[in-house]
Structures are given as C-alpha cells and as structure tokens.
Design goal:
- The chain contains two helices and no strands.
- The protein is mainly alpha-helical.
- The chain has one domain.
Amino acid sequence: MRLADIEAISLNVGITLFAAYIFFIIYDLAKKSNAGKLGTIVLFFALGLGLAAFLIKTLVIHMIEG
C-alpha cells in the first residue's frame, strides 16, 4: 500500500470522525440549553449547515479535479 493510499484513507476517516464529533457537540449544546424539539432541530440545521457546506465543497473540488 502506497503512502498516498494511506493518506487518503486517513483523511476520509478523519473527516468522518470530525463530522460525528461536530454532531455530538451540537446535540450536547441542545441538551444543556434545554432547547426542546424545535430548538434542537434549528440548532442541527443552522450549525450543521456549515459542516454540510464544507463537505459539499470537498465533493465539488473532487469532481472538478476528476
């Protein structure tokens, strides 16, 4: 296995773990602030939108580069 393959796998695993950690932080924030159902949905939408934009940007760059 080449170094580039290991780096690609590590990057994918790292981004996945980062996304999971971000969602845990959003959940914890909603729980500690007693946000309720609607507040939790709003938090996940608003704060998750930043993560979604990052992931979409990564996919678009990957598609453009081929």
